[in-house]
Structure formats: C-alpha cells, structure tokens
Amino acid sequence: MKKRTLEKGELGFIAVLGVFSLICLAASARMFAKAPTLNGEGTVPLITSLVLAVMTLMMLFEVRGFPGGFEKGAALGRRAKKLFQFLFPGMVGVIILYCLIYAVMLGIVGFPISTFVFLVGAMLTLNRANKVRSFVISAVTLACIIILFQFIFKVQLP
Amino acid sequence: MEIFGQMLQALIDPQLVIYLAVGVFLGIYIGAVPGLSVTMAASLLISFTYSWDVLHSMAAMVGIYIGGVYGGSRSAILLNIPGAPAAVATGLDGYPLAKKGLAGQAIGVTVVQSVLGGLVGTIILAVGAPAVAKVAITFAPRDYFLLAVMGLLLIGSLGTESPTRGVMSAAIGIFIGFIGIDSQTGHMRFVIGPSGSTFRTYMTLGVNYVVVMIGLFGMSEALIQLRDLSVKPVKQKVDKIIPGWKNVIKYLPLSIRTSLMGTFVGALPGTGGDIAALMAYDHAKRSTKNPEVPFGEGAIEGLVACESANNAAIGGACIPMLTLGIPGDAVTAIMIGAMYIHGLQPGPLLMKNSADVFWYIIGAMFVGNLFLLIFGFTGIKLFAKIVEVPKYILMPIIIILSVVGAFSINNNLMDVYWMMFFGILGYLMKLYHIPVAPAILGVILVDLIELNFRRAALTVGNSIPALLLDLVSHPISLILLVVIIGMCLSSSGALQKLRSKKAGKAEEN
C-alpha cells in the first residue's frame, strides 16, 4: 500500500469498523456456542467476523506511520470542526438532511408531492440562479417518472 | 437438418422475429434504467405470455434476457449505478471512461463485446450443452463453496488501495447477508429492534441485495459528486461509437477467453453473470501486462472482459435450464416458470419431447445477439447526454431514481430507509478509500458460500479433518483449492517478494 496522508477521521472510521467487528464476533460466538457444529448456524458468521476483526487490525497495521490528517496539537473542538467540514463540504450535509426528511415525508404526503418538493428544494439549494428552470425540470422529471414507472411498467410508487 | 430447420424458425417466421426484436429492444432500455432489472422485466412479461403461443413467449423472454443483461451496463457506465448485478464490474472501468468524456466509446465497446460473448455462449450451448451439463452436475457443495471463496478473493483484488480493504468490504457485505431467518434452522440471526416493530419484521426477512446495490452505488455516488459542484460536466465524445475492426481483433483473444469463462461459470446453477463478470475482470487484470490505462481508471480490457463474460453467461445459464431443468440464474428460473405454464417439462426430456422449443431457443439466442448489435448502438448519443447534465440537476434525479428503484423491489418504504443508510455508509467508505463493490458482491455471494459450506460439512459428518481431506481428494476441489492458494499468495505480495529476492540474488551473482 502506497504511503499517503490519512484522511481526516480515517483512523476513527477504522476504529468504528473495529468495534463493529467485535460486536459481530461476540454475537457470532454466542450463536456458535448454541450449536457448536461445523454446519451450525453460527459457524460461517463466526469465521466471517474473525475475518472482519483481522482485516481491521491489518488496516490499522497498513496505515501505521502515515502522516495524520489533522494539524499536530490541534484542539479537540478544532479537530471536530475540520472533520465536519471534511465529511460534509458545501451542501452535502444539507442534501443528506433533505434525503432523510424526504424519506419520512414519502410515507406521510405520498410520492408526487414529496418528490416535487425534494427536487425543487435540492436543485435550488445547489443552484439558486435558475429558479424557474428548477421548477420546470422538477415537474417534467416527476411526470416522466410517474408515466414510465407507474403507467408503462406498472411499478408501484411510494 | 431437422435441427437446423427448427433453429432457422427464429429467422424465417416474421412474427417470431418481431417478438424477439421487440424483446431485445425493450430489454436494452429497461436494463438501462436504474431500478428496473431484467429479472423484473422478465417477471412482468410472464403475466402477458399466458395466452401466447409457447414460441412467441420464449422469443420475447430470450430477447428481454439478452437486451437486459447488456442494458445494465449503460447505467453502470453513465451513472455508476449497475442496472444488474452482472454490470457491477462494468462500472469499475466504464464510469471512469464516462468521466473522461468517453461514455460513447465505452458503450460501443460493450455492445460489440456483449454480442461476441453472447455468440460464444450460444455456440457452446448448441454444441456442448449435454457435455457441459454433465461437468456442471459433478460440482459438489464443497466445490461451490470454494468457487464462492474464489469470488471473495477476486473481490479483494478489486480493492483500489490494498486487498485488505477489499476483503474487509466483502466481509461487511457477507455479514449484511446473514441478517434474517436462517434458511436451514429457521432461527433469526442478527435481527435487532423492539419485538413486533416494522424494523424488526423487515430485518427478519433479510436485506435485499438490490437495496444494498442501489444505496452503495447510486446514492453514495450522488453524494460524492455533490462534494465538488464546481467541476463542470465533461463533454462526451460521441463521434466514434462503433469500435474499429483493429480494436475488436486486438481484444479478441481476451474476449474469447473471458466468454468461455463466462459460459462455464454461467452453467453452474446458482451462479450467474455477476460472478462470471467478476472472474473475467480479475483474469483480465492479471493477464494484461501493460494496459494503456490502468485498471479501475478506464481500461478497455476491463470492459471487454466483463461484458463478454456476462453475456456469455446467458448461454451458460441456459445449459442447466434446458438440459437439467435447473435454473442457472434468476431470469432462467422465470423462464422455467414460463415453460411450465405452457405445459413443457424443462430437463433431460426437453430435447426429446419438445426438440422444436429447445432448438428454437438456441436459434433465437443467435438472432437475438444480432438484434443486439443493431439496437445496442441506438440511443447512445441520447444516453451519453445524461452525463453532461449539470450536477445540481442530475444528482437529485439520481437520488429519486434510487428511491423508486429501492421501493419497487417489495413496495416497502423500509427498503428506501435501508437504501439511504447504505448510501451514507457507501459515501463514508468511498471517502476513506474502502471499495464498495466487494460489499455488494459479498451480499450476493453469501448464500452460495454459507449453504454450500454447511452442506459440505454435513456430508463429512461435521469433522474438520474429514472436510479438509474431502477438499484435497477430489480433482475439481483440489484444482479450485490450488487456484485459491495461488491467489492468496499473489494478493499478499508473497510471490512478488520471492521474485524480487530471486532477482536480487541473480544480480549479485
């Protein structure tokens, strides 16, 4: 593996994967203990979670000595701010938030309204210059999706 | 002569030709729309075919199958959302080509290679169906298990930075595949949430791999693209879509090798175009010494290998379907259903009792591939324009298509929520240099791995020494085992170290 600067939060992400692999390992071991045979329901999960844990360790081993993504000696608050800026630059965080709201709204107001609002909102958030264009494109896209999926291919929409 | 006449029916009966042509055309465009899969198209079609003549319904099915498998590559190239699992490997080099403005060229290559692969698969189906079927049925559960492990190691080699990250991603995918009711014991595994909740009920049924695929590829790619809105869309070159003869001949040895590989893998029941394409991609990566462009950055060899293999797998998948009555993949399972509806008995007696249908299907596959060559080149300019749409318009639309695609699987909003979860997970994985393709293939391969491991263990009385002995005492298993060990050594870099040591000693001498 070529040496590079670690991304901000990369070690943290590997640590999260490590915790995940340990949880999987514990759950699999418990499952295996109930039926400790080679063809038992816990055997393959146990092997897989062992692979997960070993790979996490190997990933940590591979990135040892790589220069860190944060400035040396930076305060925790500053690191958290930098991490947030790295994870959600520009409008990414806002769009993820829109997606989550959209998913909830789908079940409440239905597909046509929530999709139109999401499309217009996302397009205007990403580019405020073309308001009319965003409205028209959103309406046309929605109409195309409904015609194609619902009427031509008979696919049920949310 | 009689056989030839039955195959020729695909060419001379105008009605059958029309059904086949329409099937191929629709298959291409259905497969190209993210969220609409060839399996879904075939299952929708079956409801129309009740009242049709058997050959007409087979014509439409074969057409949809051929067109749909190819069509899946278009969305993989243009949007990095594979239209089908078989197109996962296509996106690895196809999408980088589209980013460079070469989407038209990439689609052109996929058309020609799909046709070549399809024809090789069909020839093998016609000539060697009974022989290939005989070999395929000698595969024991332990061999399927080893084959799946081989798939996992191939996944490792797809990792952009190191095999460790590829295998890590695959293991995450396999774990996702464990969620739900264990098919052998009926016990729930890794199911969480309050008793009686919708969340828990959903988890009991397991997470659909298409949901994982749409989330990790489609949604996450849209989020990644939104990180930098200042990048202007690349103008696509669509003047040279049809690859020249020189190029076709240049890659012919590779496409024949990968087509043969695809046909054989496709003939193994339970496998399909996805594993075939993956193996072919790995083969191309290992056998191409000096690619003009590195693999993963737009190597034509990568496109050639996976596209010829996944279309050749269609012919392969039809071998167990027609000769043994065992589906090679999901679409052939639907085709078997269609055959039963029409009173046919797919299996060893099909060739004897309904030879006309058997040979017509083979003839239709030949002609269907020729239609693919014609229709495959249509709409490329229009499709290539998709990549030129400004990001602020395209990315929200991709998110909507991902939502519709996820919902359409089970008409369940919970699929949409999970798709979004996988979208955000994929976004983080991409940010931290962990490839997402192995995770998807892990979810797809999990059944093949686990069921066959457990069956293999059961056949040797759950004894580890007996299982190991079983693996080394059967020729097919031994070959697969040797290949796996070789792959492990080459992935770990042990072979390279040994070679460099030898080279160092030789220099000293």
Tell me which protein chains meet in the greatest interface and how many residues each side has.
Answer: A-B, 61 and 65 residues
Distance from first to last alpha carbon of chain A: 45 Å
Largest sheet of chain A: none
Which parts of chain B are unreliable, with pLDDT below 50 for 5 consecutive residues or more? none
Q: Kindly, what is the distance between the CA atoms of the first and last residues of chain B, rounded to a whole number of angstroms?
A: 68 Å
Count of separate structural domains of chain A: 2
What fraction, in percent, of the residue positions of chain A are helical? over 70%
Number of strands of chain A: 0
3D architecture notes:
The complex is a heterodimer of chains A (158) and B (509). With 158 residues, chain A is mostly helical. Chain A is built from 6 helices and no strands. Chain A has 2 domains: 10-86; 92-152, no CATH class. Chain A is flat, with a radius of gyration of 23 Å. Chain B has 24 helices and 2 strands. Chain B is an all-alpha fold. Chain B has one domain (2-459). In chain B, a hairpin with a 6-residue loop joins strand 1 (180-181) and strand 2. Chain B starts with a helix and ends with a helix. In chain B, helix 6 (103-137) packs parallel to helix 14. In chain B, strands 1-2 form a two-stranded antiparallel sheet. The chains are: A mainly alpha (158), B mainly alpha (509).
